[in-house]
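# nightly structure sweep
# worker-07 picked up a monomer target from the shared queue
# config: single-sequence mode, recycle default, output format = structure tokens
# input follows
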Amino acid sequence: MKALEFATDLMVQAGQCNVRNFPDRIVQTTPDEPNFWFGNRIVFFDPPTDAEQLIAQFHADLPNAEHICLGWDIPNLPCSVVEQVFEGADLRVEQSDTLALSGALNRVAVPDGVVIRPLVERDDWAQCEAIAKSDLINEGAPERGMDDYLRNKTRARQAQIAKGLGQWFGAFVGDRLAGDMGIFHDDTLIRYQSVQTHEDYRRRGICSALLCASLDWAKSRAPDAVAVIVAHADSDAGRLYRRGGFELAETTVSAYKPPSD
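# output follows
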């Protein structure tokens, strides 16, 4: 894959997703996570020209999917190009920004009263799922299938951790999870995953401290790998990462439609 986002997506999901290769596209499926839209999608190699044809291709390749999810492995493809093609097609078109760390991370101290450690106990993961559910609902994601989706994500993450492919860190105040993030790597790339902070603990340096602890773990195993994170560069999260030393590396575009209620 040319795009860092898609390349690291497949790295993180190694062994859990299936990829079928065609001259014009890849078809990615994640059998154990049918509600994971971006794990069950088509990624095309050429710019879009015909929305109906691309949507029909999705249904042909993933006939059992209740959603639609398309991407383009074209770094810096203008979002306006995709929006124009899919105008009136009832799909959400979104641009993702991939930020990369080219130098040293600007380090911060762990806030007083906070302990950073891997998620281990069932309650650790349950709290992680609860934060994610609240955030998804606030972002307008449909609740249908959400609990199953989050439980499946936990099982998938635990399986990858057991294989030694990554780790999931939490920032705890006592037994309460204040924030968490995952990090995965191979020899060349490090990818942060699902950075989130409980609404009661935002703007306290939790996320910045997790960035440091997670990267330390990954760099101890893959010292020459480049760290990347996917976030809107001009969002609050994106600005936080850029203060940490990350810079915009490239953009990617996806179009998707959630399942009907």
